[in-house]
Amino acid sequence: MKKHPRGLPIGAFAAAAGVNVETIRFYQRKALLPEPGRSYGSIRRYGEADVARVKFVKSAQRLGFSLQEIAGLLTLDDGTRCDEARVLAEEKLEDVRAKLDDLRRIESVLAQLVDRCCASRGRITCPIIAALHAH
Fold first, then answer.
1. Which CA distances in Å does 104 have to 64, 110, 113, 127, 133?
2. Which value, in Å, is the radius of gyration of the alpha carbons in the chain?
3. Exposure string (b/e) for 89-98, b if CB count within 10 Å is 16 or more?
4. Are 76 and 39 a contacting pair, CB within 8 Å?
5. 70 band by pLDDT with thresholds 50, 70 and 90
6. What is the mean pLDDT of residues 15-31?
7. 1-75 has which fold?
8. Does the pLDDT value for residue 2 go beyond 90?
């Protein structure tokens, strides 16, 4: 990020963080990002720490953390609460593994339905539609 002596206006801040301006405002409403005071000329200015914080939020979202969970992680960012952060990550990992199990089950059922559909050409009732009606 290019240094700006008095900080970045919101548009440049959003661009530096890789998000749009509405994302910045949304994060501020959700208390994930502090809203800086207005400087001379009524323009809010953001710094490198703000850019890093938004990138942290986006990174955590890509790992499946909800905004509420991310807010909790942000409160642990003082360098002394690694164990608490680990517990949150372990809980997320369990959740991801459960979702993977569900996805594998769904994949198996869909594969069976597709195979049945291909094997029963010429029948009036589609096996996929019939199976979905049965469940």
1. 18, 10, 14, 21, 22
2. 24
3. eeebeeeeee
4. no
5. very high
6. 97
7. Multidrug-efflux Transporter Regulator; Chain: A; Domain 2 (1.10.1660)
8. no
